[in-house]
Amino acid sequence: MSTPRSSRGNPSMGDIVRSVVVIGLIIIGLYGIGKVFSDKPDTPTPAVDYAKLTDQARPVAGFDLLAPSSLPKGWHANAAQLNIDWWHLGIVKGDHDYIGLEQVKGISVTRALQRFADGTRADGRTDIGGETWSVRKGPGDRTTYVLTKGEVTTVVVGTPSRSVIEDYIASLSTS
To answer: Is the pLDDT reported for residue 39 higher than 70?
Structure first.
């Protein structure tokens, strides 16, 4: 008479396959529950009226504040902020493209780069609108443009192509 085989310690191939299927179904179920209960907003980056904020900030800024006269098609501003010696304007297109404009007064270029473009390396120079900008490449396919005039350092950091960022920089004005 034969004794039934114990599956302890020596499982059959069928036992292994059944276990993997059960674990896979649990993982798929947890993923589905996570998707149902996760809250993803329809507009991940709310638009701000940068033109209005720019008009309000220019009279009180202690420097010539830059902003574009209009945004490229499909882009919208998601941040605009003026602190004592710092102006920030962020624009986005979809979920992937971003351009950030930073103007800081009274700090060195090195400090500005540490603050806004850490990890970038020099990648030449380019002329935009009669000004010579330093170009830097950084992590995550970011391109950074830097210009210093007097006490103000302007840093433009973006993820789109160089031509898109350069067109944006060319659109910047103080009025």
So the answer is: no
The mean pLDDT value of the chain amounts to 86
* Rounded Cα gap, residues 9 and 3, in angstroms: 16
Residue with tokens 């009226």: 49
Closest by CA to 67, choosing from 53, 83, 78, 46, is 53
Superfamily of domain 50-173: MucB/RseB, C-terminal domain (3.30.200.100)
Those residues whose C-beta lies under 8 Å from the C-beta of residue 151, and which sit 6 or more positions away, are 63, 105, 106
**Banded model confidence at residue 124, pLDDT cuts 50, 70, 90:** very high
Taking the C-alpha atoms of residue 156 and residue 51, their distance in angstroms, rounded to an integer, is 18
Query: pTM score, two decimals?
Result: 0.73
Q: How far apart are CA 121 and CA 99, in angstroms?
A: 18
CA distance 139 to 58: 32
Q: What is the DSSP-derived secondary structure letter of residue 6? A: P
Residue 26 or residue 33, greater confidence:
26
Strand partners, 145: 135, 156
The confidence score (pLDDT) of residue 4 equals 56
